[in-house]
Model the fold of this input.
Amino acid sequence: MLSFCQINNYWQQQVNYDITVTLNDADHTLDGSLKIEYINNSPDTLKYIWIHLWQNAFKNDKTAFTYQQLENGSTDFYFSDETKKGYINRLNFKVNEIFATIEDHPQHQDIVKLILPATLAPGNKIFIETPFHIKLPYNFSRGGHIGQSYQVTQWFPKPAVYDSKGWHPMPYLDQGEFYSDFGNYKVNINVPPRYIVAATGVKKNEHVEDGLKSMTFEQENVHDFAWFADAEFILLHDTLQLASKTININAYHLPKNKEAWVNSIQYIKSAILSKSQWLGEYPYDIVSVVERPGKDAGGMEYPTITLISTPGEEKRFDFLINHEVGHNWFYGILASNERMHPWMDEGMNSYYDKKYILKQYGKETPALKTKNAFFEKRLPDDIENVLLSSLIHIKKDQPIETPSEQYNFLNYGLVAYSKTAQWMELLQQEMGSEAFDQMMQKYFERWKFRHPYPENFKAVAEEVHNKNLDSIFSLLNKKGSLQKPIKKDLKIMSFFSFKDTEKHNYLFIAPAVGYNLYDKIMLGAMIHNYTLPQNNFEFIAVPLYSTGSKKMNGIGKISYSLYPGNTGQKIDISLAGAKFTGDTFTDSVNTKHSLEFSKLVPSLKFTFANKNPRSTVTKYIQVKTFLINERSYLFTRDTSTLDYIITYPVKSRYVHQLNIGIENNRKLYPYHAILQGEKGEGFIKANVTANYYFNYAKGGGLNLRIYAGKFFYKGDKFSFNTSRYYLNMTGSNGSEDYTYNNYFIGRNEFEGFLSQQIMIRDGGFKVRTDLLSNKFGRSDDWLGAVNLTTDIPKTILPLSLKLFADIGTYAEAWKKESETGKFVYDGGIQLSLLKNIISIYIPVIYSKAYSDYFKSYIPEKRFRKNISFSINTQNISLKKLFPQIPF
Done:
């Protein structure tokens, strides 16, 4: 337990600032001078001071900020123009008027080490000064400029914190906030006269001189300073009476959002009054809230001032203002090392957010309200809790006590914020509401204007509770749920629901429709239990009645998932099935017979855990067996009557499949590869397919696909039985989709536009030679191909057009009698629709062998008949759209 003696021995550095800065809005730059009074209150003699130059985080694509943005799924900064990047330079440090040298940080461009000309003994102070020049970046993260609206944050050279745990130099990160020493600020800001400026602290004077508006802002006992300038700001002002003083309330907003900000002053007051009551009176003389241009950018807090975007919904606006103003207590006054312990700011603040919402709106959660009654019934009151429970269920949550930069994107928002709020509720239940409130007030009073660590918070809690709280605080370092499970009942509902999933086991029923050329329109129902959090046992059944074949068809799947260990590995055991008509046959008396197929696919899949929770890599191994029944027609001749007899036998076959895969759905240069082995009656087949995507800076990119396959006969060669399994240079048609994994409108059509549908498999060529008895590029030995697809910039053509090119070779092409040449190629234009689910291919160039084929076999309407298309249902993937979401 922390003793009062230990509290009295606590120390922290004092860093006072005197800054003068001038804005040049023509080139978005700042020119300034900085003077720092650095007081060494530590018991140690200092030889150097780490200095943060956080504007250099936006200097190039080799910074910690850049790498984190890419990992979190954003390439906005990485591919930004040089004109949008930013930096700080023209530094020339002096210490006590003696020039001092700086050394680069070994890893980060936005940190330098200031070597002191003379050591700084305990209890002594030094004066540091330097000029500086800043090129403000476009506002990619918290600060910069949006046009000629300026958000000047984390802008001046700032010493890193030196505390009892040592130095804390840290690069600028978007996910992961800051840790700085308290001090007194005097900042002189010069801007063109048309600008209105909002800043940390109190404005002491303002005048216009030499064509510039000059203002001085001062504030004692804060650890940062931010300012904002916009020529269009409208100022709303009022005062608020607290117990010991009257404070000023300011709201700066843009004219276009005037109506949305009508109640902003009242929201600010409500936030201040509630936190002052629950924690301790607000200690400064001013609170300002400033609008950031644009929507849905959230907010960011600084001492006495916060920057927020304007959400469209009124109650959500109240929620956002309350959250950001609340950071004045957590982060502003209780200045924890949030980079290492984000829960001490974000999580504690979120606990009081929930308390505020309950006070203002009862059980209503403003962030989730929708005007659509259908979704209103199906969306949860607390979406964050549902997502958190989903993460925990699949064991991909992280402990609360995790440094900011080590959280993956989803865990940072759900664990550091929401789960910590749950933990605070648990602590409240353990202590009792009255004792908990007393504890938080004592914690605030004792540690305000200081840097509390988790052990300091625990010490205050145990002091008030007068009991050991190890069991509660140990939960900060553990994964898993903090909430006790509730016995669930069964509830039937239409379509889907994520509401009250902790109370109900849902059974969902919804109408379903399907279509193919042979079954025509199919009508039925979809019955499933898919929701969040995911059930270990999941099922979906889609029975469909065919208006064409007059038969019952459908698809279905049942699966059970296991999560062994505690790091996210997963075992899926499943059984899938499907039944549809694959073709029709009309006999001599004009009776149409449906030739249906059905399959059952048992599967076992193991997905490996990632050592790094931030990784977007998925590795898996899967075994499947396809048990397939196919009805066909058979002509036999009666030897006595010499008549032909048509029968419709059902044949059974199997394909065993082994897949070993790796995929990385990262935003920049995603890739995936799969090694596949297959075995069926009379054959063994092995292949590898790899895809790599090269992003373009202006959007789109180049996709590279490489394929290599080998076919083996098992025993004697039986070409008739094994030909559908051969390797194909051309994307396979419906009859060659031997596992029935792809959707074909007319699976066995051999004329008309539907016969031009292919699936991208094996060689992946788009030029077809289906009218030949033995297609070009078909091999029962080996085959290799390279496929390239590149986007055409929409600035050139507004449609989703691409160019494709394929080149390949195969065993038969290397034989002396080959007529195709050793390598074949094609290329053309591709139109992709619905996020590449549907693609249309128009060949323009191709090998001579293909050209000769077209001239011989397609004499009329050659251009139209050369077009092919694919329906790539495998591209329907939430994982590709949202790689940070693991379920």
